[in-house]
Please model this.
Amino acid sequence: MLQRDVQQPFEKAAAFFLFGALQQFFFDGNKRTSRFMMNGILMSAGIDAISVPAAKVQQFNEKMVRFYLEKDATEMMAFLVDCHPDAERIHEENSTHSVKKNTNGMGL
Model:
């Protein structure tokens, strides 16, 4: 479903990371493995990988705890975009994509 329903590679990769981290498929290393897969999806689409800077690790952990408890990915998706080297371009593409969805009757 994710492969079919989510077309934007960045959104698909971030959603895969969050899904894998939440589902806890493995005994250990779920976030690391899911980040590895996220970056593989990004790089296969010609997009730079995401690295959480050391200065933002505490913020990352706090947001992940809220994500685990609330099951709402909005905050983490925004955080991942902000950690990407091309964050400004991604924000622009997402807003352009949202405008297109809303103008063709498929939005809200």
